[in-house]
Amino acid sequence: MATLKYKARDIKVLKGLEAVRKRPAMYISTTGPRGLYQIAEEVIANSIDEALAGRCTKIDVTIHKNQSVTVVDNGSGIPVDMHPEEKRPGVEVVMTTLHAGSKFGGGAYKVSGGLHGVGVSCTNALSEWLEVEVRRDGRRHFQRYERGVPAGPLKRGGKCHGTGTTITFLPDHEIFETIESDYEDLARRLRELSYLNPVVRISLTDERSGQNEVFHNKGGIGAFVAFLNENAAKDSIHRPIQFHGEREDTRVDIGIQYNAGYQENIVSYANNIRTWEGGTHLSGFKTAVTRVLNNYARKQGILKDKDKNFMGEDAREGMTAVISVQLMHPQFEGQTKGKLGNTDIEGVVNSIVGEGLNDYFEENPTVARRIAGKAATAQRAREAARKQADLIRRKSTLDGAGLPGKLTDCSSRKAEECELFIVEGDSAAGLAVQARDSRFQAVMPIRGKIINVQKYRLDRVLDNEEIRALITALGTGIVVAGNGNGNGNDNGTGNNEPDSKFDLDRLRYHKIIILADADVDGKHIRTLVLTFFFEYMRPLIEASHLYIAVPPLYRVKQGSNVHYCMDDKELSKLTKSLGRRKYNVTRFKGLGEMMPDDLAGTAMEKETRALRRLEVRDVIKAEHIFGVLMGDNVEERKKHIAEHAPDVEFLNV
Fold this sequence. Notes:
The protein is of the alpha+beta class and about 650 residues long. Helix content is about 35%, strand content about 20%. The strands form five sheets. Strands 1, 2, 3, 4, 5, 6, 7, 8 and 9 form a nine-stranded mixed β-sheet that branches. Strands 10-11-14-12-13 form a five-stranded mixed β-sheet, sandwiched between helices. It is globular.
């Protein structure tokens, strides 16, 4: 038996912030753009916590030309006196110690979003340098850190008026894939915060581009709902409903607005943190809305004695809502704070929403009847749609029986190695069948432009032959209600039913690849397909199963050498290397004009193809864009196209 050489001396103890630099992904999930955004968010969160405590009314964020970021607030300033145990200034303790701060003791902050986060010390650890200036006790105080380590002691500077904190940091290029902060990511978050904290004026300046925005939304959550719903504003059936309530140390703010559409859009927050996966506050909200609407419909005779209660999805059809709770001790699941777990909050939100919505219905009977009538119509459509969905689901089996005839399947039955190409048109699909590897690549054609799922209820969507065939081929079923954000879907009787029967484990292909022409029509068809996946199969996107193939627009042949160019820009660049040498350029009007080798080498063969993986980085922005581009508001779409037309470099018509 071999002697064990593993001894105590082999155990490495990482001190201070060394662990963060050693394993950054454990603290910020990724060293890509999301992680870069996260370290800026940690600094901004500190300023917002000051606002929640009633000590801050102004926050200024600046992205500098050297990629450093500055956050300035007029809060109370991080303490600079000596910490009794650490024997160091409070600001140094905060900047160099994980999980250090008054948020843990509950003294200085009644409500905070920072308790379960990685904190500003993580930003310090992952920055090439960070400088902090504290205005407190009538003086300026300054300290610099280099890769998390103090470059010198805290210095006491000259006199100053007012209080506050200024933090400037440069993300470490040794840690991050890029150190260029994304303006739109920060603007989106600051806009959110301005709605949730209407007393705070927030500015964002980008010295790289000259962009500047000020966010100060005094309308609060009601204005937030209107913003989220603006692409359907002409079809809104009432003005935003806004109310709040308090129970002991918890405050609940609610905004609701229904439109004539069919999708629900609910966003939830706990202490200003976006809870992407919902949680107990969202469950309490859903239960209350369904209960109140059922009671009202029974009372008004909209639901008869023989009628079933509305399901949650009926009650929320066409609903846009914002839920914001502020509580003393939030219990989030995981470092990303995706889900709120406080069990008592469900009852608190349920009670406040029930009272607020009941009062609104009594004071606004016309609006109440519109909402209840919409739910009744949704109920009838849901029952018809479920019958169709169940029929499709029964036909879709893992062993391949009952698969659509238009599908040319692969021989492998191992889902993790299988790919499905969704191809525009029968002729292009025939070409793809010749170009594929039949062992693991399946091909399914779609004819023409499929139904725009933004404009119709699910029963109409499932009438579409192409949609039915696609659902059957994939095998998962569909998400039949809303955005799937939450713990369940209350049916008004106290029983929770899942939002859908979507089952990711039944997915037959782990790569789903949309393959369309490189021209405008192809992009339109691709957008229609993406809209369907976003609305009814979003878990596929979230699990990184959806891709877009990038077929070439040009083939350039020079002697025995063949080059492919994706657009005019690539073609121009290539022809300038080639110089005066003779070459022949072929422009593909569509996939059908290619030879099998052309398609295989550029879009299908694993070693040489180009694929773009789809991900949803910002659900609010994505839902807004889909609504603008695919919804009924023509004026909003024209405005969007006009605003972004200058960004288009090449337009292939």
